[in-house]
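Postdoc handover notes: sequence design on the structure in folder B. Input tokens:
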């Protein structure tokens, strides 16, 4: 801050002279100049704030100019006509590629050792298999001692034979006629026929001895079987029973006489007797 002083001071109408008062005035002016030259506190803080603002990063805002929208009044540009084909330049000879060095040979990694294969078991020659035995026939079963097992199914061991045949044969004929609705085909009770004789080929004793079995057969007026024979009572041994059924299937039955008043089928029963010698068998 600079102050202009007049070249000449006037006090009243007298000019001041250089005296002790003038010297004091000069000293006072010099001190004021010194004080004015010192930095002000506010100015130093202002400078420091400006420096700090310059150090901080300044955010820059990008301005993107959008493309101008087409003027709807302006007609679309007409595609230019394709230029006429020009003569293609002469083909140049292909450049021979420069031979490159062969790639380095990479030796394959050594293969892992294979697991040891177990040695095959020595083949055992079993030879030809024996042929399967033929199925056992009924005669083979009769000669087999293991086939004689008592089945506990013999019912004919009662004292009154008349009562036995009446009850067993009647029940059998009623069961055979259960599904028949024609009275002319209902089987009627016939008669007792000669027994079937079943041979026992072994000399081994059987405990208990075989009982007398019964086989029933239904035949027509001509003596032909209408169905398979039925076991009405067991001998106690299934092998004897099966043999008796086989024999009854080959049995010849009598035909009814002509002019019979009831030409219905007949139900006959045949006792089954086993040729067993209890006194001459071996235990």
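Designed sequence:
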């Amino acid at each position: 801050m600079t102050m202009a002083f007049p070249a000449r001071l006037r006090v009243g109408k007298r000019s001041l002279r250089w005296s002790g008062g003038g010297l004091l005035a000069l000293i006072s002016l010099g001190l004021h100049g010194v004080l004015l030259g010192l930095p002000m506190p506010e100015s130093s803080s202002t400078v420091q704030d400006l420096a700090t603002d310059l150090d901080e990063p300044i955010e820059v805002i990008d301005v993107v100019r959008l493309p101008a929208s087409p003027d709807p009044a302006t007609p679309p540009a007409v595609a230019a006509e394709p230029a006429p084909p020009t003569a293609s330049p002469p083909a140049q000879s292909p450049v021979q590629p420069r031979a490159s060095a062969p790639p380095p040979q990479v030796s394959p990694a050594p293969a892992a050792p294979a697991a040891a294969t177990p040695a095959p078991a020595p083949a055992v020659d079993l030879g030809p298999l024996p042929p399967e035995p033929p199925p056992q026939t009924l005669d083979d079963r009769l000669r087999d001692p293991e086939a004689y097992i008592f089945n506990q199914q013999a019912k004919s061991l009662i004292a009154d034979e008349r009562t036995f045949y009446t009850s067993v044969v009647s029940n059998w004929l009623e069961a055979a006629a259960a599904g028949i609705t024609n009275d002319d085909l209902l089987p009627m009770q016939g008669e007792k026929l000669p027994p079937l004789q079943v041979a026992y080929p072994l000399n081994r004793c059987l405990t208990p001895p075989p009982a007398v079995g019964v086989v029933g057969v239904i035949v027509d007026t001509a003596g032909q079987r209408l169905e398979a024979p039925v076991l009405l009572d067991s001998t106690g041994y299934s092998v004897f029973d099966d043999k008796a059924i086989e024999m009854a299937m080959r049995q010849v039955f009598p035909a009814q006489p002509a002019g019979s008043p009831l030409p219905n089928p007949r139900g006959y029963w045949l006792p089954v007797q086993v040729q067993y010698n209890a006194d001459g068998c071996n235990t």
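Context for whoever picks this up: The chain has a mean pLDDT of 74. Don't rerun without checking with the PI first.
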